[in-house]
Write a structure and sequence with these properties.
single chain; mainly beta; Glucose Permease (Domain IIA); three-stranded mixed sheet; 41% strand; globular
Length: 229
């Protein structure tokens, strides 16, 4: 996924999902210059092991086990999000470095493994940022609003499509201030921090998807810090 040229070098982003098995993978890079000439090169990509933290909790079964009707809703919402992240917009919308949507400290880090009542649950696929109720939430870069809805787990949610398979997610909002189809600028206020959905208190869950890979949003900040427009 090219992000531009800097000092005569083409740069790109490749998302590695947090569940990718540590190993050395062979990848092929194909590029086309301004005159239509195609270049290709095979490279080796080494995925290293990361030891994500584990959190063990004991909760009442009523807070963990979903009734059939709720489970049906959750499955439908999951399929809807999966279909969204599989779609590809052939337009690079974002510009330059990505920014944090709120300035709060991290309360729950990326990749945290939760074991609830002895059962392993899905890992934490974003970062939770501390913030007071009503704090403005900013778009981390330019994008098109791909989803605005109230989902069971994530509550009031906004998803931005930044083009070329890159999406950002903003969950547990108290309210959204954009509509689906809106184009927003980096830093634009898209909603307010809240505690909707399955949430223990006001905070922002911020997630990033790159070509269906769930990646640490903080790694995106680092990798685009010196990116050109």
């Amino acid at each position: 996924m090219a992000v531009g040229v800097r000092d005569g070098i083409f740069e790109g982003l490749l998302g590695i999902d947090l569940n990718t098995r540590p190993a050395t993978y062979k990848i092929k890079v194909v590029a086309t210059d301004g005159e239509g000439k195609v270049y290709s090169k095979s490279l080796l990509l080494k995925v290293r092991k990361v030891d994500f933290k584990t959190q063990r909790l004991s909760l009442p079964s009523s807070m963990v086990d979903l009734d059939p009707k709720t489970l049906e809703r959750v499955d439908e919402e999951s399929r809807r999000l999966k279909a969204l992240f599989q779609s590809f917009r052939d337009e690079k919308i974002w510009r330059g470095a990505f920014i944090r949507p709120v300035d709060g400290e991290i309360s729950t880090g990326f990749g945290l493994r939760r074991v609830i009542n002895g059962r392993t649950r899905n890992p934490h696929t974003g970062v939770d940022l501390k913030a007071e109720e009503g704090t403005p939430v900013m778009a981390c870069n330019r994008g098109i609003v791909a989803l605005v809805d109230h989902l069971f787990f994530s509550g009031k949610s906004v998803v931005l499509d930044h083009g070329w398979g890159l999406y950002s997610m903003y969950f547990h909002l108290s309210r959204a201030q954009v509509n689906e189809g809106d184009r927003v600028l980096k830093g634009a206020v898209i909603g307010r921090v809240g505690s909707t959905g399955r949430s223990s208190g006001p905070h922002l869950h911020w997630g990033i998807i790159i070509h269906e890979a769930r990646v640490d949003p903080l790694s995106l900040l680092k990798s685009t810090k010196h990116g050109g427009e």
